Amino acid sequence: MSETSAPSTLRVAVAGNPNVGKTSLFNVLTGSRHRVGNYSGVTVQRLEGEVVGKLAGEGPPIRLVDLPGIYSLSPTSEDEVVAFDVLTAKDAPDAVLLVLDASNLARNLYLALQVLELGLPLVVALNMVDMAREAGLPVQPQRLAKELGVPVVPTVARTGEGVQALVDALRALDRAESHAPVLVPPGPDDTALQRALEGLHPSLLPAEARTALLARRAGKGVPGAAGTFLASLPESDVRAAAQQLVCARYRRVDEILEVLGHRERVRDDAPAMAPSQRIDAVLTHRVAGLAIFIAVMAFIFVSIFSWADPIMGLIEDAFGWLSGLVSDALGPGLLTELVTEGVIAGVGNVVVFVPQIALLFLFLGLLEDSGYLARAAFLLDRLMARMGLHGRAFIPLLSGYACAIPAILGTRTISTTRDRLVTILMIPFMSCSARLPIYTLVIGALFVSTEPVISRGVDQGLVLLSMYLLSTVSALAMGFLYKRTILVSPTPPLVLELPPYRLPRVRDTLLMVYDRVKDFLRGAATVIMACTVVLWALLSFPAERTGAGQGGATMVAQSYGGRMARTLEPALQPIGQDWRVGVGIIGSFAAREVLVSTLGLVYGMETDEDDPVQLRQALREQKDPDTGRPQHTPLSGFALMVFFVYACMCMSTLAVVRRETGGWKWPAFMFVSMTGLAYVMALLVFQGGRALGLG
Amino acid sequence: MSAPTSLDRLEPGRKADVVGVDGPGDMAVRLLEMGFVPGTRVELVKVAPLGDPLELRVRGYHLSLRRAEAAYVQVTLQ
Q1: 3-state DSSP assignment of residue A417
Q2: Of A209, A227, A256, which marks where a domain is finished?
Q3: Which domains can be identified in chain B, with CATH numbers?
Q4: Is residue A145 part of a domain?
Q5: Is A447:A634 a contact under the CB 8 Å cutoff?
Q6: Which helix (H) or strand (E) holds A451?
Q7: Do B49 and A290 make contact, defined as CB atoms within 8 angstroms?
Q8: What is the pLDDT of residues A144-163, one digit of tens each?
Q9: CA atoms of A628 and A482, how far apart (whole Å)
Q10: Cβ neighbours, 10 Å, residue A246
């Protein structure tokens, strides 16, 4: 796929409501090969791919752009603005592929009428016809085609049914032919609408005039002469006109439904929802629903921690083996150290997180595609609303447990800027997977009492759980605080569709997981690798090289990094840490997990060993040079973990926040406030614990 | 037909017809576009376990609104 398209390439925008199988259809058409990008200026994900293989057939290539799922083209959310801008841009796509849910035309057709107003060549994929038939709904593609005046192809994206016909229909579109916008006329009594459109039409295209009207009603500014005209209208007239416009469109939808043979009952009841409603009798039940939700979340957590672990072990082993191989091949020397301790270790530090991230996104994807994630938002909205947030903010917050980067990107579903900001500021408090290696290292090294309270495993598990609870409570508390101090705004509307439950198409979910993992590797690899190399250099120079394993401690102490950390030591002692951990904290500015590799580097130079077991032992056996007592105790370990619950030690997070908020103001605020809070909390833990005689 | 009321005051299982929609900012347009146009039949299906939001059936699908949002939809009971 090349960046620039040959003039003959047919560029098709794929539009549709959320939950209509748009992504499945896109994946089937493109053979699951696509490029992931962003729409310029915003962070709405943009998928682009070409129709491939036998499907493509003869003729110019067909390039598809997947638009975000939207209910309407009126610009009330970022997704809608993006879709509208793409479809009305100067280099608008050659055609639109509109995906409609055959089992829910009463709502889906509203968007269809709006797309028809644009006057672009259009093909409708009447998707999920199998579900519609199962629900006893009439499926009438020919009649629908006649009513809409565009080709309609019945499809089942899940099985690939009708997809070839869809490609043929796209090829059969005559690009040269000008397609007149199909406009729903105002009714005879819609005087406010008639007058408003008359005033707007001279300066705007018909579709733009209608959008401007709804945008004005939505409180957004409209530029130019149209804006001046709209501003001259009384508010009540604009309100009436907007309402009349939506009503006129829905009247037309009802006319079409009648022609298709949807009886009144079918429109008002929801036959396609009947099976889902029986499932919801349990899953959103007052008691069972909440219990099942907690069980689902618990299952996900346990799976991530227990299933990812062996794979992570294998990855660590593999990179260790590779290091050894390179070491043997190159022989001892500076270059060998650069390659093994810098480059290979750096790559390993990135790859080791893939299992956890993949598992979390696998679960999130399955929950979302099955329809359960919407129920989770339904169950929890009361709690989120109490903090002034949307139930939907729950999903990015939950994703924050895996990694703040995709979670922050996921906040785009939140339509108000301030609430998006609050959520973005909350996410880094959620204990991401990069903190887990810190927790497991510290717990594995220091919480190994020979007299456990319950049993060693349970004790360790409870300590880990307490970190997650602390981070969750802190994120919620900070959100509550921000919402009432610096980012005051009304609670955003919920307006959440509860789609029918569906069996997720595993192929689509796996593809999404693959995209996310690739995204993480691309986003994190350079920063973490570069940092590992820089750190290796910081800790290796300037020093007299005395050969492998000899005099390592002196060397690290003399290095630039060691000197920096020693300078910081007076500030670290009150939170129970020494300069070695200080070096790790300096390193963790790049990414939290770098703490572990840096400590490995610090201790590895002494023991000439890069084994985590050895690192744990080294931490355990480290003695305070003044007192001769263990340097690291459970209390100092706890303080260190608390520090990392709060500290914003992740350059990638700050970079993403900068991109999302359009400047350094918020990332700077985030970094300073979080790190300050981290120090205070660690200080409270360590000094408080000592006062209580715990350390 | 009976006296006009607002959508948030329905009992679970009750149906009503939309009379009109109001609300600040985006709210009215959004509610209208999601299908709450005058004359539409709406049913309150369920109240979430924590007492809010509401599950509603409108135009052949299920939608969740908070009580505060549902209050912008004026209806007459069926």
Answers
A1: helix
A2: A256
A3: 4-77 (2.30.30.90)
A4: yes
A5: yes
A6: none
A7: yes
A8: 999 999 999 999 998 999 99
A9: 45
A10: 29
Q: How far apart are alpha carbons A435 and A423 in whole angstroms?
A: 20
DSSP one-letter code for A388: T
| Residue type at position A672 | V
Cα separation, A534 vs A528, whole angstroms: 10
Question: Looking up tokens 């150290």, which residue turns up?
Answer: A337
- Lateral strand order in the sheet of B54-58: A496-497, B61-65, B54-58, B41-47, B15-21, B73-77, B4-6
| pLDDT tens, position by position, A29-68 | 998 788 776 665 555 678 899 998 888 888 889 999 999 8
The amino acid present at A222, given as its one-letter code, is V
Q: Which contiguous run of DSSP H or E holds residue A662?
A: none
**Residue (of A344, A315, A352, A351) closest to A533 by Cα position:** A344
Per the model's pLDDT, the better-predicted residue between A617 and A151 turns out to be A151
> Does the residue A418 lie in any domain?
yes
The segment with the largest mean pLDDT, out of A8-12, A324-328, A672-676, is A672-676
Does A458 lie in the same domain as A381?
Answer: yes
Does residue A326 sit within a domain?
A: yes
3-state secondary structure of A374: helix
* Domain coverage including residue A468: 273-695
Contact across the interface for A107 and B53, Cβ inside 8 Å: no
Chain A partners of B46 at a C-beta cutoff of 8 Å?
Answer: 280, 284
Give the pair of three-digit tokens for residue A210. 């209608």
Residue A140 backbone zone (phi > 0: left; psi -120 to 50: alpha; other: beta): beta
Separation of first and last alpha carbons in chain B? 6
The answer to whether residues A211 and A317 belong to one domain is: no
Q: Which residues of B have a CB under 8 Å from any CB of A? A: 20-21, 24-35, 37-38, 40-41, 43, 45-46, 48-53, 55, 57, 59-66, 68-69
Number of separate domains in chain A: 3
Q: Do B52 and A287 lie within an 8 Å CB cutoff? A: no
The arrangement of strands across the sheet holding A45-50 comes to: A35-38, A45-50, A62-66, A10-16, A95-101, A122-127, A152-154
Q: Between the CA of residue A298 and those of A287, A301, A363, A460, what are the distances in Å? A: 17, 5, 12, 17
> Do A343 and A444 have their domain in common?
yes
Residue type, A139: V
DSSP per-residue string spanning A497-557: E-PPP----HHHHHHHHHHHHHHHHHHHHHHHHHHHHHHHHHHHSS-----TTSSHHHHHH
